[in-house]
Amino acid sequence: MIQQPGTSGLIFNEPLLWEKSRMGRCAMSLPKPDVDRNALDADLTGDAPNLPELSELDVVRHYTRLSQWNFGVDSGMYPLGSCTMKYNPKTNEVQAARQGFSGAHPLSGDEFSQGALKLMYNLEQFLAKITGFHAVTLQPAAGAHGELCGMLMIHAWHARNGRQRSKIIIPDTAHGTNPASASLCGYESVNIKSGPNGILEPETVAAAMDEDTAGIMVTNPNTLGLFETHIKEIADIVHSKGGLVYGDGANMNAIMGIVKPGEIGIDVLHLNLHKTFSTPHGGGGPGSGPVAVGKTLEPFLPVPRVVKDLNTYKFITDCPDTIGRIHTFYGHFGIMVRAYSYILSMGAQGLTDVSKLAVLNANYIKESLKGTLNLPYDRPCMHECVFNDEFQKQYHITTMDMAKRLLDYGFHPPTVYFPLVVEGAFMVEPTETESKENIDQFIHAVKSIAQEAKDNPEQLKKAPRLTKVTRLDEVLAARKPCLRG
Amino acid sequence: MIQQPGTSGLIFNEPLLWEKSRMGRCAMSLPKPDVDRNALDADLTGDAPNLPELSELDVVRHYTRLSQWNFGVDSGMYPLGSCTMKYNPKTNEVQAARQGFSGAHPLSGDEFSQGALKLMYNLEQFLAKITGFHAVTLQPAAGAHGELCGMLMIHAWHARNGRQRSKIIIPDTAHGTNPASASLCGYESVNIKSGPNGILEPETVAAAMDEDTAGIMVTNPNTLGLFETHIKEIADIVHSKGGLVYGDGANMNAIMGIVKPGEIGIDVLHLNLHKTFSTPHGGGGPGSGPVAVGKTLEPFLPVPRVVKDLNTYKFITDCPDTIGRIHTFYGHFGIMVRAYSYILSMGAQGLTDVSKLAVLNANYIKESLKGTLNLPYDRPCMHECVFNDEFQKQYHITTMDMAKRLLDYGFHPPTVYFPLVVEGAFMVEPTETESKENIDQFIHAVKSIAQEAKDNPEQLKKAPRLTKVTRLDEVLAARKPCLRG
Amino acid sequence: MRYLPHTRDDIETMLKVTGHSSLDDLFAGIPDHLKTKQGIDIPESLSEWELNTHMEALASLNIACKTYKCFIGAGSYDHYIPAIIPYLISRSEFMTAYTPYQPEVSQGTLQGIYEFQTMITELLGMDIATASHYDCGTALAEACLIALRKSSTDNKIAVSSLVHPSHRQIIQTYIRPAGFEMVEIPYTKEGLTDIAALEQMKGIAGIAVQSPNFFGNIEDLKAFKTITEAKNILFIVSFTEALAYGLLKNPGSLGADLVAGEGQSLGLAKSFGGPGLGLLAGTHKQMRSLPGRLIGKTKDANGADGFVLTLATREQHIRREKASSNICSNNGLNAMTAAMYLATAGKTGIREIALQNHDKAEYLKKSLMSSGFLPAFHTPFFNEFVMKVPENFEKKRKTLIDDHCVFAGLNLEPFYPELKQHYLFCATETISKDDIDNLAKEVRS
Amino acid sequence: MRYLPHTRDDIETMLKVTGHSSLDDLFAGIPDHLKTKQGIDIPESLSEWELNTHMEALASLNIACKTYKCFIGAGSYDHYIPAIIPYLISRSEFMTAYTPYQPEVSQGTLQGIYEFQTMITELLGMDIATASHYDCGTALAEACLIALRKSSTDNKIAVSSLVHPSHRQIIQTYIRPAGFEMVEIPYTKEGLTDIAALEQMKGIAGIAVQSPNFFGNIEDLKAFKTITEAKNILFIVSFTEALAYGLLKNPGSLGADLVAGEGQSLGLAKSFGGPGLGLLAGTHKQMRSLPGRLIGKTKDANGADGFVLTLATREQHIRREKASSNICSNNGLNAMTAAMYLATAGKTGIREIALQNHDKAEYLKKSLMSSGFLPAFHTPFFNEFVMKVPENFEKKRKTLIDDHCVFAGLNLEPFYPELKQHYLFCATETISKDDIDNLAKEVRS
Ligand SMILES: Cc1ncc(COP(=O)(O)O)c(C=O)c1O
Ligand SMILES: Cc1ncc(COP(=O)(O)O)c(C=O)c1O
């Protein structure tokens, strides 16, 4: 019998910081003043902000205890669909912590920053090779920021062509950030439906595409974990009407070494280094969302850009068509160091294996669970597969109930209720770093839960039981917002 | 009402390493061979040891999960008597990790190790100043090793005086390591009783001391947390009969800046850097047990010794009377770095405050709990105080029951059933780094448990409830030893 | 490869279950003409040990590999980082978790960020702080968009010319496509934003002022508030040096409607400019227009306190094109780091560090003056200020870097062409009196 | 001070409860003549930042602050340490826990050390391994004491002269006071322990042989076993390079009764020689005479598996003067580190690393020979070997350190006066072919 990881143990209650505060404590080692005190005029200064006063042990214990209430990839399997929660190698952290990188001031000047510039230049090249594009910017701070960057470039391209357009086509399988990014550029979203088998049909796009439409945003593989097989025809249609194709490459983990978006009609693509390239999510960032483009859009890339002449590297800003700047300095350099380290550690073969095994794991789960959970689109998937709670409706058990119950089994739940095209979606992305035993354990857990749904639905409604807190009242939180202590 | 820290949350089962092993996995990045393979004769080589085969994530998750089953000082209050479980500053770890220290080869030669030698020389000086002795060796690897070192010196001194002795006086308040260390030198222990108020009486010592007795081993403050007020008279008695006084200084945390053992008749003393000087215990070491001596015993210190001439430092070994070597190199250098950092961070005033506050915390607990638990020796204590389960006997509740119940409240239990002079001892050492609020929480927990002992003894018998495992069968473990998987 | 757990047997067994003949067969559904013909042309994989050598070599091409003295701030500041912070933040339960979508197993992140939000509102004197943004520049751009969207009539945002130059460029990039416009408010001879000029401006939906401004000078925020009140438009305050508000009157008390700031000074490494920490705060009134995540307090099924992501109805994953912003992942781990820093410093600590920054900067200014530098302005500042430097300075500055790893100020000319021979200097608590005396000695002409 | 949480109020309130007038009053019970008259004469306290500067300055006085190439082993070896190990071992739940006296909250340490014991028995082919000792030298001395105590008649222990010189000194120190004696077994021209000489020895309670021995040569352990069986005494094997047993026949399979070894090579930094890791293993027969802690498997009240400290009846805190040893704290955290290393390397990894060590050493030996060095012995070795060096070598060696941070071998004369101009060389997997080629070039005469 398979033993499930979930169990309970001693952890600790911990009050809010200020509830531990006592006047006169300070956990900071204060430098000894070596120059005279030089007071500012009183009317400029205010009271010291009322921050909690703690000893060093108080602070250490506070965050140690908080950390124990969290679930990370190092704690257990984290098959959160669309988030690519793969193992974050520790050596990447060692590289990013090197004094030469972490201590670098962004304005030290090119001459004294050659290491950072070279790393950025090389990383841009690597990503271009992986995606099949011509040029890359590393400036975007996250995936959505990359989308904005890409859409700004499309917008600038239309502007330069002398006629701005007003709409953008967005399929129902798109990530929520896509339409939001588009509307930041003033584009109105034209939402279209994916076909019965979950992928976009050229006719649908043809019907929607016109001269007032700036282009289309496609996620490929899409948020159903399916590959858009008609992408080339779709791109041709959009291009023929003078539009451009934006590719959301957050799901690149499925196709490295197999498909290069730059070769199949995509004009601009963003990547999530904090997914495909193993940088940690940090409980919600910082990430990094580089954007890759073909020759057409290269002139519009944000500045500064890194260029190499002979064997030195420098930033340039004199790019007449650039969309301008989207980050105060050069983007999330610390994250770039980690992704660069990952790519060097894997090499071309390694990255290709990553995609093959990520897809193998997802298909293995799909096949193993499709009798247990309803599988709306039963076709070979890429890196993730989307089920829903259709079979469990009869027992009044929802996707949410099953997700919460999975916590008691010791697994982080999949992404739930996304993508919106699937009602009650249960979206599983195992990633390549989970072993067959972990995945079998997960499959076993889901099957047991499906069984419980029949035999003992109450147990699911009450789930989670083992966590420090039980289900939280999100309605109350939103109705009476309490956003500070 | 005071909220107790203990609660339960989601943690994870984790099998033994080899149960996770799959042939062909390897978590180690293997260097690429750059020279020819050069096989050893087959009759010299054996099969590769059958170690578990895992991926890097397997290893990371294994130890992350194991760590969550543990309780450390960073997790909560750890009032383990006689162990001085104070906060272990993180900056000390940073210092010990510096390449110049952690990367140093012990045989690089004095000329290329001046930083290490200077640190050791200074640390010896600091410890000499703190204890009031003339010279110090840092070679002992732990407290008990320090005792052995000290007793070997006493043994060598008697030998050099031409007449070896056969016995050593050891009070019932001594730590178990003392008699064990003495017998390693061939000394037979003469156990004497402490007086009715828990401290040694000169008469008792006088009665036991004779020309066949090498000396006495005194722990001061003793293991009851009491200061041996007659230490000077006792030392005089022992000295007058040609014996020497060994001081166990593992409890130095109580008297820094107040009493210097070297000034009150002690001839040789060991310290526990992993107690008084904040180095982490690591779940059972590595520690460090320096030994301090007066002029009498200095010639007998182990070699090599660090000496300074002009501004350079070197190791010397030409010490005719030395007891020899007790560590392969120079002792636990990495631990010395941490203790040195701690002493520099505290300074003289800081160390004195440490002792005053450690003693304050202990007395505060003693006064607050003496109505709740029986206090066999009701007098002002030093850094720790010893209760027992006398009051709870009527409810058939033992010290062990109360200790296990404390776990459910979120505290590490005190030391139990030690010292042996107190039946059912419950030995509390809060240390100075616990705040009043933590201590009040602890007091409140003990009082609640005493109440439960009356009202609901079953609950104590069943404790702990919240930990991953319940009480373990130590008899079974010893009867059918299973020491490997 | 040590990150890939699949053994040959595993792969075979799994392929049997999925009904594929090989790993390549998994991609049979992708038409051949869409598959790439050549592999990925990148260097072959490095072992962990080759990587260490390679990366240390790269890092050592940055001057920062040596301990260098940095008299430059300009948006990235050199402050002490207590050893406990890198240790605590690296705990994998924080580092390797995703956005807290499942609150029952994310209370560590959630309480931590709730505490962050609270301490930021304390620091800035505002009602609400978000769970973080990318950096000050992007947070400020979003703040400008809020102001612009609020106005039905006006499509201009007035931005001080003493707002960080990069931030002004980001605002441009963000607002232009939506048809908005940025107008710059000139600065005065005192190195302050020109209020008089602002008063003349028409069609303005809001104003943005940085204090301490890019020259390090402290703006008279109250005066701007009077104007924004008169015009009934939003008052946006920004800053790049968060520690300034350990000492200065906070923007909330001076009437800011929205505050966008950089939190890098709060325990984060300079890291060549990123990732930093975007701070974004507002008054209650602005709650529903704020972009990005918010953590709120609530109860669990047993009535116990707990924390959740809340007011998600502003966000893209629910609202899609109608969202107040597209931001999804933010800079959460850095927000947690800043919270650790603020809790470590505490009320007394942050005030003392702020004071020391100001003291060092004043001492640096005096010392440079005694070496023949001329103060460009005579206005109160925090830890940065502008000096007119002697003729030969640029050469000296270069040798100072080469010989002593000392970075003596930032040339302002590229940012303000009119300010020839003007340098922006910064001194923080990490700069010692000796460092300053040495610098003054070296540059004496 | 940031480590001391007591506020003035706290102290006052607490003193009221304890009934003392002041903190000093807490010590009223100590007679004045016992109190010290002067304070502690040490430097005044440093801030965290001063400490960093001070310690980096000290560390930089060690050549190790630079990346140096170490062709020296002799008991301390330079091996790669995977990044996951320092990270995992620094988790405070491991680092800041005490000896697992309360098993219910120490299962992490306990299962970890149980796994350590198991993997060490695998590595050495022994029945039982202890939870660790201080280092190889002290573990070996304890092993000798076991042998000596077992014999009613003989009070001598025969120790190979090719056991690490420090270890022989430690044995002396440990056994002398109890009236025991150590006799050294000479070595042969092949650089091996002289079995013939051993056979002549009388009154011996046991023998101790190191393999690979101090010269790096692999001893014929089977031959010694024959003798100890004949004499019916204990056979003790020691080693300083644990990775050797990734490749060599293990001591258990060759008949060792007790094995004492150094575990520093298993993921531990050299750290100027300590803390290392003492390994101590024995056959079932020796179980109750083994010193130090043992972890055993058992059941909890619900029948679940769990681990505890066991067989404590051998230990000092129960047996006091009758204990098998005085050891209390051992090197637990380093045992956990070694377990992590062994789990990371695994069966294939440890073999491959061992092979590479041997390959590099063979290549180094060949290269030095081609540079005019003469092999002192022609005996199989693991990763260390002895060479007779050219006249001018000592001077060259010094310049190699000064100019290239290369440590070319260890002079054996201080340890073996008869071996003038003989050096002990070591090469591990961290030494590249280029390093070796460069060394060979530099020392060519
Ligand atoms: C398909 C897709 N696109 C875009 C994003 C947005 O990325 P980020 O959260 O880094 O802004 C995500 C991540 O949530 C995603 O899954
Ligand atoms: C009073 C006393 N002496 C000696 C020792 C032995 O120290 P160690 O465990 O470092 O050998 C201890 C610690 O247990 C102790 O408390």
Task: Provide a short characterization of the protein structure.
The complex is a heterotetramer, with two copies of chain A (485 residues) and two copies of chain C (445 residues). By secondary structure, chain A is α/β, with parallel strands linked by helices.
Task: Provide an overview of this structure.
The complex is a heterotetramer, with 2 copies of chain A (485 residues) and 2 copies of chain C (445 residues). Chain A is of the alpha/beta class and 485 residues long. Chain A has helices at residues 56-67, 90-96, 99-102, 114-131, 143-160, 177-184, 202-208, 231-240, 333-369, 399-408, 436-455, 457-462, 474-479; strands at 6-12, 135-137, 167-171, 188-192, 213-219, 244-248, 268-270, 291-293, 305-309, 312-316, 385-387, 415-416, 426-428. A 7-stranded mixed sheet of chain A has the order 2-8-7-6-5-3-4, sandwiched between helices. In chain A, strands 11-13-12 form a 3-stranded antiparallel sheet, covered by helices on one side. Chain A is globular and about 75 Å long. Chain A starts with 5 loop residues before the first strand and ends in a 6-residue tail after the last helix. Chain C is of the alpha/beta class and 445 residues long. Chain C is built from 13 helices and 15 strands. Chain C has helices at 8-18, 48-59, 84-89, 92-95, 107-124, 136-150, 165-175, 195-200, 221-231, 316-319, 332-370, 393-404, 433-443, and strands spanning 69-70, 128-129, 156-160, 181-185, 204-210, 234-239, 258-262, 278-282, 294-299, 305-310, 374-375, 384-388, 406-407, 410-411, 422-426. In chain C, the strands form 4 sheets. Chain C has a 7-stranded mixed sheet with strand order 2-8-7-6-5-3-4. In chain C, strands 11-12-15-14 form a 4-stranded antiparallel sheet, covered by helices on one side. In chain C, α11 packs across α13. The radius of gyration of chain C is 25 Å and the shape is globular. The model of chain C has no long low-confidence stretch (mean pLDDT 96). At the A-B interface, β1 and α1 of A face β1 and α2 of B. The complex binds pyridoxal-5'-phosphate (2 copies). Residues 82, 142-144, 175, 177, 219, 223, 248, 250-251, 272, 287, 289 of chain A line the site of one pyridoxal-5'-phosphate. One pyridoxal-5'-phosphate is lined by residues 82, 142-144, 175, 177, 219, 223, 248, 250-251, 272, 287, 289 of chain A.
